[in-house]
Amino acid sequence: MHSLLALNNNCRTIQFEPVTKDKILKNHVIRNISVQSQSQCQSNCFQEPNCVSYNYGPLHSDTPTCELSNRTHLQVSSSDFLQKREYIHQHIKNSCEGSPCPSNTLCQAGFTNRGYRCICVNGLEQGANCNEACSEDWRSFQSSCYHLTTGEKSWNNAKLKCFTSGAQLVKIDSSEENDFIKTTFLADGADYWIGLTDEETEGSWKWSGGSILEGFQKWHQSQPNGNTWQNCGGIRMGSFWPGNFDAEWHDRSCEELRGYICEK
Predict the structure, then answer these.
(1) pLDDT reported for residue 129
(2) What is the number of domains present in the chain?
(3) Residues 87 and 11 placed together within one structural domain of the fold
């Protein structure tokens, strides 16, 4: 076996298995390169994150070719592993052979202490779930994208503006999500609309999408306190009457003008 090691932030360590003579792997080639030696072909495979095997030859040619493949012969039909004189085939010890990554990711061998890494496909964001990437002015958390608008609207107009963006006023389901909102959007003195309302039935709080408020809640200890005239929810940070708010919720008149946070 022969090993190659990269010492950088995207460290790749691979081990090449023994060479197989007079064989090539077809139908899985991702790059075709002109090289001067087998070691140069091997080096090119190492530098290509998706390469797990290569074909090299003709052996006695002045212009040999190097074909990099994203599969080994152990992963494909035997009909793809063909006899061809004057060529050699070599593959790496491939931790991706057992398909350890989720179906919406690409497995790359030789990375991390597991021997592989899972890469999200184009248009998806790197992370545990490979979510759709958020546009530049939106912020990502778990499977959602969030946007703060500081231009002030009434609660219902804020709801409408979110809707026209394909979103809704933010629905906060966990302490982790509330903490994300806090650290991402809430400076001292912030007071923004979120998706809570009890306009339909006093005391029965719902999110703007229609789901009932249950489970996680972070009302300030003095809230909600507006009875029938404060029917929409916001989130505050800092000193407000009647006390300090630490990314806690409160109720206000829906006609008051506030910035707002959208989620999609």
Answers:
(1) 57
(2) 2
(3) yes
Domain hosting 243: range is: 139-263
At 237 the three-state DSSP class reads strand
In the block, which residue shows the tokens 């063909």? 82
Reported as a single tens digit per residue, the pLDDT across 72-123 is: 999 999 999 999 999 999 999 999 988 888 777 888 999 887 888 888 765 5
CA-CA distance, 209 to 170, in Å (whole number)? 10
- Residue 12 is assigned to a structural domain of this protein: yes
Domain CATH for 223: 3.10.100.10
Residues 65 and 167 in one domain: no
Q: In sequence order, what are the residues at sequence separation of 6 or more whose Cβ sits closer than 8 angstroms to the Cβ of residue 140?
A: 125, 127, 131, 133, 134, 146
Is the overall model pTM greater than 0.85, yes or no? no
Q: Do the beta carbons of residue 81 and residue 23 sit within 8 Å?
A: yes
Per-residue model confidence as pLDDT tens digits over 145-174: 899 999 999 999 999 999 998 899 999 999
CATH number for position 21: 3.50.4.10
Compute the distance between CA of residue 169 and CA of residue 159 in angstroms, rounded to an integer: 6
